[in-house]
Design goal:
Largest sheet: 7 strands, mixed
Helix content: 40-55%
Number of strands: 17
Distance between the termini: 74 Å
Strand content: 15-25%
Length: about 625
């Protein structure tokens, strides 16, 4: 069948679906709701009786045609039918509609060789999912798996099944029975809405019922997937845990940015390999997962161990093949886990900066790992995410909808790695991952509160030097001491010098560097200690001190000093806390006054480390 004819079929089906659904709304659903609101039960029954077969046909045809179109969600008509008709009638009508749509698709595919872009796109997802099922369970069981997973539209599943040369009787039986759990859930949601309308149920109860139904379905689905289809995948990225996590993450993120993926350089790359990526946003896991969406194997992630420290989350992360690592703390188990995952044939994704960018520029990589990468004897992929920093930086709560691009920038083959020295490989990684969000120029930001929260990282006025006097108001960063302001334009650049957030932060660095030799920071803190076991935590009060000699903490129960040789960095959460490990325990320090200062503490540590590293390099060069 010609592409023009295929597009025409989809277009006609789309128009027919919209028209029929609009007819169902105006002729049945809306009048029915009005009668329910008036508590006119007899009138509502009379309305449905008067429409009779026409109402039934509308439900069946809408359900059938939306499957042909593929990208229209089936839940619209299923919930509407559950709202309008008794449960058993709604279930039968929706199932008949699915069977009719599946039959149309079967004929289009087997007789006319019909296909579409939507079908091809979903077929790749299905084939990748099928590859994750370790045992060959046959097409029929695979279709059942697909129907109960809320990831792929019914229509796309039917297109896939029709291409697998199944007998029609077996195919239609699989479709008719496989869709029942989803239809039942949607119909019950419609029934709950009907009782809410007709019986004056409180809104909170309706929300609770709908959430409970969705929750029950997801729990049953997860248990079924984990115990039946993905039982052999426990402890790997092919597990049901990873599937459910990224399915939920995709639903959350897909409408919050316009994501563009360039995977041309890795499309035919065989796993295992290491992916190194810059780190500008908390959602970088999602972006890199989309980059490897068409890869032949799902990736494992090296993540902050604190995020998976809760016993339940830690268990789920272990089942999902996640590799937990303490930030800036030596942990010999991490290299072992990375090598084990590579031996199993999975890519491993690492964010070498180990912390989110504070100013849109890349952090220097503290843990130089070239020697380790060389021992792995695996290809290295350098990935780059552009646009994520301004979409959701660590200093702003609000998510800006904008363009985000994730791409595989280059592949360093294992034979190239073997020919390099450690210094050469480290330098190549540093140069390849370096970025400045303000120079990317891929987004336009028309929001009117672009500077809100910016004072939490640009804490010092570069015009008068005053500390903690900046304030983000609308699109302007204003100093309350000298009155100077810097305005952000639609490219998230300042209209005057220093022109970018990164350049402003660099000016602050210059001011702080000039004062380093005499600098001494002290603050009283509330402390939360997460113990290495992850099973409990301690709270206390104490005092932190930072000077050129190192970092110190004092309290009634704990006291320790950390020199800069043992303090690679001081991670922090904006306007909240800074943190470090000591004897395996993680200390979160919350200043009791002026929590904006946490960024300054982190910056001072970075500056002193940079100064010490420079002095060490000079000594080595002198030798």
């Amino acid at each position: 069948m010609k592409k023009t004819t295929q597009r025409l079929i989809v277009a006609v089906s789309l128009l027919a679906t919209v028209a029929l659904f609009a007819l169902f709304l105006s002729d049945i659903l809306i009048p029915f709701i009005k009668l329910e609101l008036k508590n006119d039960v007899d009138g509502a029954k009379a309305l449905l009786s008067s429409r009779g077969i026409l109402g039934f046909l509308a439900v069946v045809l809408v359900e059938a045609l939306q499957m042909v179109v593929v990208f229209i969600p089936a839940e619209f008509i299923q919930i509407s039918s559950g709202l309008s008709y008794p449960f058993y009638i709604a279930l039968i009508l929706c199932d008949l509609g699915v069977c009719l749509g599946a039959t149309i698709i079967y004929v289009l595919v087997t007789t006319f060789r019909f296909s579409s872009n939507a079908c091809e796109k979903n077929e790749k997802k299905i084939e990748k999912l099928a590859a994750r099922v370790k045992k060959d369970r046959g097409t029929q069981l695979l279709l059942y798996l697909l129907f109960i997973m809320p990831l792929i539209p019914f229509g796309a599943i039917c297109y896939y099944g029709s291409c697998r040369k199944m007998k029609f009787s077996r195919y239609i039986f699989t479709v008719a029975t496989g869709v029942i759990p989803s239809i039942v859930t949607s119909n019950l949601m419609g029934m709950a809405a009907r009782y809410f309308i007709g019986n004056d149920l409180p809104l909170w109860l309706l929300i609770l019922i709908v959430a409970a139904l969705a929750g029950i379905l997801l729990v049953v689905l997860f248990l079924f997937l984990n115990k039946v289809f993905f039982r052999e995948n426990a402890g790997t990225p092919d597990s049901a845990y990873m599937t459910v996590f990224f399915a939920a993450l995709h639903r959350f993120c897909r409408r919050r940015q316009r994501l563009h993926v360039d995977d041309a350089r890795i499309r035919d790359l065989s796993a295992p390999y290491i992916v190194l990526c810059n780190h500008g946003s908390f959602f970088d896991m999602y972006y890199t997962n989309r980059l490897l969406e068409n890869a032949k194997a799902n990736p494992s992630y090296v993540v902050n161990k604190h995020f998976v420290s809760h016993p339940l989350i830690r268990r789920a992360a272990s089942k999902a093949g996640v590799i937990p690592k303490k930030l800036f703390y030596s942990d010999l188990s991490v290299p072992v886990q990375i090598m084990r995952m590579l031996r199993k044939g999975y890519p491993v994704i690492i964010f070498p900066e180990a912390r989110l960018s504070v100013d849109g520029r890349s952090y220097p990589i503290v843990d130089k790992s070239a020697a380790f990468y060389r021992r792995l004897n695996a290809d290295l992929v350098i990935a780059k995410i552009r646009g994520s920093y301004f979409a959701k930086p660590k200093w702003r709560r609000r998510f800006f909808r904008t363009d985000v691009t994730v791409s595989a920038e280059r592949v360093i083959r294992r034979d190239e790695i073997a020919a390099m020295t450690d210094a050469e490989l480290n330098r190549l990684i540093d140069e390849s991952l370096a970025y400045d969000a303000s120079e990317e120029g891929i987004g336009v930001y028309r929001q009117k509160d672009k500077a809100k929260g910016l004072e939490n990282i640009l804490y010092r006025c570069i015009d008068c030097g005053a500390l903690y006097t900046t304030k983000g108001v609308g699109n302007e960063l204003i100093c309350t001491a000298c009155g100077r302001s810097h305005r952000l334009n639609e490219r998230y650049l300042f209209e005057d010098e220093p022109f970018s957030i990164g350049a402003y932060y660099a000016r602050i660095k210059e001011l702080e560097t000039a004062e380093l030799s005499d600098l001494r920071l002290e603050t009283d803190v509330n402390v939360v200690i997460f113990h290495d076991t992850g099973k409990y935590k301690t709270r206390e009060k104490g005092r932190c001190i930072l000077s050129p000699e190192g970092f110190s903490y004092r309290s009634e129960r704990h006291s320790f000093d950390v020199g800069f040789d043992a303090l690679p960095a001081l991670p922090f959460s904006v306007n909240a806390e800074f943190e470090t490990y000591h004897n395996g325990d993680l200390y979160y320090f919350y200043p009791t006054e002026n929590r904006r200062q946490v960024v300054r503490w982190a910056l001072i540590v970075d500056l002193i480390k940079e100064l010490r590293n420079g002095e060490n390099r000079e000594k080595e060069d002198a030798r």
